[in-house]
Amino acid sequence: MKYNFNEKIDRSGNHSAKWEEIGKKFHSTDLWPMWIADMDIKTAPEILEAMKEKMEQEIFGYVYRPDSYYESAVEWSEKRFSYKISASTLIHSPGVVATISILIKQMTASGDKVLIQTPVYYPFASTIEENDREVIENKLIADNEGYYTIDFDDFDQKLSDDKVKLFILCSPHNPIGRVWTKEELLKMSELCLKHKVRVIADEIWRDIIMPGYQHVPTASLSAEIEQNTITCFSPTKTFNIAGLQASFVTFPIRAEWEKFDMELATLDIKRNNSFSLVAFEAAYRKCENWVDQLNVFLSENMDYVISYIKEKIPEIKIKKPEGTYLLWLDFSKLNFNKEELSKFMQEKAKIALDDGFWFGKNGEGFVRMNIACPRYMVEEGLKRIEKAVKEWRG
């Protein structure tokens, strides 16, 4: 089946955060929305059909989780990543950020330190700080082309601090778009073992991979690394069903699984809702072809943006991501400070993008653009930025 990802979808009036919460996050409400990481692309029809069948039952009481739910995630992991996990290690969670917050509370004490690699998904830092832990940064290094690598000397040195108890790995990385190689993952994991630091691997972007790259699950590297790694993943980003709010966590140590399960029970958030239960299983069992076609479409959107910028807005530096549907745009040539760049994008370009400084101090001068949308939205966003930069030139 051939899917149409260029279909125009009117999201007005459907309580879309991306479209209707702009006034809460930005200074104006009339901005073109290319910020928050969900897609302006219709969910796969196979998922919609499963949800429709559930709706037609006309009862939405408590649901139980059949064995097939976890088995679908196990089979997907083995088929897509050649990594066999046991269904008994998996547990349902409302979301990856909620999982990370619970794990920080359970695996560290007040005043302990947690390592992250900036610029990185900004809820990492806020969740650490809100749990009264200290953020420690291993700053990623960009070359002249905008390609980021890991400062392993600094990584090793930061891990050597006895107060560092956890490392939160973003793999693939948001916002820089790196799909870490097996060698990079192995080196990071071995250093964590050396310093007895546990790894929480956020692998929510593992399915959104550009042609020519391959995601490697961190826990697949060795039995010892698997024992040291707790992995978070979800089909929500992949299939544009983030509003259903559910994810998976895989625990290598049963006692930690049980402790996490008890916390979910205490909070009374153990169950799926009626729709996430059927949607997730349909996604993993019926939508592989949809994902493959989506990744090609996203890659083509990226190529269009890069070509447009090189031809018409050469002041912007851009590197094609290896994964995710997010572009990390470098506006440093415009010589704005972070407040000026944010104001420029909103007041001159009239576009809502994630400010780079949200992702860490080394994100200043950047913005993050979401291109998981029909081509007309990409074109409109670029025209607005081009117009604003032309005015800046004058």
Features:
single chain; 394 residues; alpha/beta; Aspartate Aminotransferase, domain 1; Aspartate Aminotransferase, domain 2; 2 domains; 7-stranded mixed sheet; 15 helices; 43% helix
Q: What's the SSE blueprint?
A:
Blueprint lengths: L16 H4 L1 H4 L6 E2 L11 H12 L10 H15 L8 E4 L2 H12 L5 E4 L6 H8 L3 E4 L3 E2 L5 E2 L2 H8 L4 E7 L11 H13 L3 E5 L20 H6 E5 L2 H4 L7 E4 L3 H14 L6 H13 L1 H25 L13 E5 L7 H11 L2 E2 L1 E2 L10 E5 L4 H19 L1
Parallel strand pairs: 1-12, 3-4, 3-7, 7-8, 8-9
Antiparallel strand pairs: 2-10, 5-6, 9-10, 11-14, 13-14
Short synopsis of the structure:
This protein has 394 residues and is α/β, with parallel strands linked by helices. It has helices at 17-20, 22-25, 45-56, 67-81, 96-107, 123-130, 152-159, 182-194, 223-228, 236-239, 254-267, 274-286, 288-312, 338-348, 375-393; strands spanning 32-33, 90-93, 113-116, 134-137, 141-142, 148-149, 164-170, 198-202, 229-233, 247-250, 326-330, 351-352, 354-355, 366-370.
Explain what you see.
The chain is built from 15 helices and 14 strands. Helix 4 (67-81) runs parallel beside helix 12 and helix 13 runs parallel beside helix 15 (375-393). The protein is globular and about 65 Å long. The protein has helices at residues 17-20, 22-25, 45-56, 67-81, 96-107, 123-130, 152-159, 182-194, 223-228, 236-239, 254-267, 274-286, 288-312, 338-348, 375-393; strands spanning 32-33, 90-93, 113-116, 134-137, 141-142, 148-149, 164-170, 198-202, 229-233, 247-250, 326-330, 351-352, 354-355, 366-370. It has two domains: 17-44 and 289-393, Alpha-Beta Complex (Aspartate Aminotransferase, domain 1); 60-286, Aspartate Aminotransferase, domain 2, CATH 3.40.640.
